[in-house]
Design brief:
With about 325 residues, the protein is of the alpha/beta class. The chain is about 20% helix and about 35% strand. InterPro entries: Glyas_Bleomycin-R_OHBP_Dase, Glyas_Fos-R_dOase_dom, GlyoxalaseI/FosfomycinResist, VOC_core.
Length: about 325
């Protein structure tokens, strides 16, 4: 069985955020969310998960305006990076940084481009790994970055871009009678999704998700963040699509962050995508422990209109 991406994309590496409240955000991710700061470089902070070999999973950049700087995905090797860059350029996709040695933590070889909504996407190979460890029983810190969900005002156009140009596959979708298709779950490996596209009023970050060791660690982490006074958006509960648990919180800049665990891994290439009706309460939360999904909850993750659309980050 293989769910290998046809263009050599392997996994989600990291999500980079620009924030005006830099010191507050650093404190939140280190002291409350459970990430490890592996280094700083001027106004940059690199934050890793203890259970992952990635150099970092969140990069914070001090900036006057909040924005998504970029989303980074790994590639099999340098040849895959070069081939994908050439393919995208030939298709008229705007390349904002040609394949070259990367200058951020861990180095590597990669390039950057704008997706159809104007997000900066990085594809890289050969990034140095870091010493990591097994997260222990009862240790309520993230093991790895799980997935990133992005808002788009045309999720079918965005889905087609990622399918056509990056080889992502549709796993499942959410649908509502009055709103039509609400979310597409996309995969580049055997995880149910590494990227998802949510219907929103504008391009922005919907949420970034972090995998916990198990259910007990997931609940302990959820409780710790609640006790710290961080605003909880939704959860705890368990979704139908992906079968994963969820607890959503707002970071100090208003970006939604999620603790999750037990995200489904696909066991066959012949996956048949399902369309789940959001009117069915089991779709949103199989446990029935979270508040029912409502327009007010949904709006929490619309986020601010991204100031970085079609503007490459400075670093």
């Amino acid at each position: 069985m293989s769910n290998r991406n046809e263009f050599g994309i392997t996994h989600l590496r990291h999500v980079d955020l620009a924030v005006p409240d830099y010191d507050t955000q650093r404190s939140f991710y280190k002291d409350t969310w459970g990430l490890t700061e592996t280094g700083t470089d001027g106004d940059l902070s690199y934050l890793a998960t203890e259970g992952s070999p990635e150099q970092y999973v969140i990069r914070l950049r001090k900036a006057a305006e909040k924005r998504l700087d970029l989303i980074s995905f790994g590639a099999e090797d340098d040849a895959a990076v070069d081939a994908l860059a050439a393919r995208l350029a030939a298709a008229g996709v705007t390349i904002v940084a040609a394949p070259d040695q990367l200058q951020t933590a861990g180095g590597g070889y990669g390039f950057r481009f704008f997706d159809v909504d104007g997000r900066t996407i990085e594809i890289s190979s050969g990034v140095q790994t870091r010493r990591h460890r097994a997260v222990e029983e009862g240790e309520a810190i993230p093991v790895r970055i799980s997935h990133a969900v992005m808002n788009s005002d045309d999720i079918n156009r965005t889905r087609e871009f990622y399918e056509t140009h990056l080889g992502f596959k549709l796993t499942d979708s959410l649908w509502g009678q009055h709103m039509g298709e609400m979310m597409h779950f996309m995969r580049c490996n055997d995880w149910h999704h590494s990227l998802a596209l949510a219907k929103g009023p504008h391009t922005s970050v919907h949420h970034v998700s972090f995998e916990m060791r198990g259910l007990d660690e997931y609940m302990r982490g959820t409780g710790r963040v609640m006790r710290a006074g961080i605003r909880k958006v939704w959860g705890p509960g368990r979704h139908m699509a992906g079968n994963n648990t969820f607890s959503y919180f707002l970071d100090p800049s208003g970006n939604t962050m999620e603790y999750t665990t037990e995200l489904e891994r696909l066991e066959t290439d012949q996956w048949h995508p399902s369309v789940y009706d959001i009117a069915d309460p089991m779709t949103q939360d199989q446990w029935g422990t979270a508040d029912p999904m409502s327009e007010l909850i949904a709006k929490e993750s619309f986020n601010d209109k991204d100031r970085g659309v079609f503007v490459a980050p400075p670093v």
